[in-house]
Specification:
Length: 195
């Protein structure tokens, strides 16, 4: 099954990034407010966005690995965000959206559609993590049916800051399991109540 097949929802087109999307990706990933909780430093130039686009998206498509979508509005098919699923044993879900589109359910709509595609393709589970200081990201996880499993602390790179992450999981195959790798990797781990 080809990864990253195009998906359409009521408002969105989820599609592969193309080289012409570099400017849109730069607009997203250079914004310091958007970047606050992303696992990378803000991009400082269009050339850096072109490099990121090639390395993270275009080469991945060539290798047929992972699910990496541009989130586009149907009105213009220009990327305003992304949703990715890691191509490793975590099946980690990640996403970002330009701030002028926040609080409209766009990321939830995009993630829910990707989850359905993953389920159809036999992916057994997904995980996702969010910084405790970013509860809105956790709300997206809850809205698409993910369940909180545990929290852990790490010195987060490349930003070199201490972060407590909450780990969520959604089992798509009906099996009961918890992805334990983060709990095993980091000395600081615990279960919060009332998350």
């Amino acid at each position: 099954m080809e990864n990253t097949p195009e998906i359409q929802t009521e408002r969105l087109i989820l599609r592969r990034f193309v080289p012409e999307d570099a400017q849109a990706l730069f607009r997203l990933l250079s914004d310091e407010q958007v970047n606050t909780f992303l696992p990378m430093l803000p991009l400082k130039s269009l050339a850096k966005a072109e490099q990121h686009l090639k390395r993270h998206y275009l080469e991945g498509y060539a290798n047929s690995s992972g699910y990496r979508y541009a989130i586009c509005l149907k009105s213009d098919n220009v990327p305003v965000g992304y949703v990715d699923v890691a191509d490793n044993d975590s099946n980690d879900l990640g996403y970002a959206l330009r701030k002028e589109y926040w609080h409209n359910g766009i990321v939830t709509e995009a993630c829910a559609a990707v989850v359905e595609k993953l389920k159809d393709n036999g992916v057994p589970y997904i995980t996702a993590t969010h910084d405790v200081n970013n509860p809105r990201s956790g709300n997206v996880m809850k809205r698409i049916g993910m369940t909180y499993c545990y929290s852990y602390g790490e010195l987060w790179q490349p930003k070199n800051i201490k972060v407590i992450f909450r780990m969520y999981q959604l089992n798509l195959d009906g099996q009961q399991r918890i992805y334990e790798k983060y709990r095993e990797m980091y000395h600081v781990h615990f279960v919060e109540v009332n998350v």
